[in-house]
């Protein structure tokens, strides 16, 4: 069975003021996504104005860290090694914003455990320098779907 490993970027992420709340929340073990303060629509990636109502006012609420896996891809770190480690990049839909997709890294599992729509829970990242990390959550955490 191939090991699933966390993705580690080669350098620290260079974030700007528009994404700073996202990275700071990850550093603190939380998930925060930009939301329009006027119509309350979540949006990713962050933008200066809401695509729904055009408001420039936003907020960054802290979310529960529970999500569902929307899609994923398996990336082999060394294609020549059929048994070598891989990392899994995916898109997760947060429980509070099911129509919003967050780029993430799936960790703490084997490849055969990964299925579309599986419940996920946020994992604290190392210094908030990479994508959000999620691991499989118990099915009862989100209604057992």
TrEMBL record:
Name of a matching Pfam family: OB_ChsH2_C
Organism: Novosphingobium album
Transmembrane segment boundaries: none
Name this polypeptide is given: Zinc ribbon domain-containing protein
ChsH2 rubredoxin-like zinc ribbon domain: residues covered: 23-58
InterPro entries in the cross-refs: ChsH2_C, ChsH2_Znr, NA-bd_OB-fold, Thioester_dehydratase-like
Domain ChsH2 C-terminal OB-fold: 60-123
Lineage top rank: taxon: Bacteria
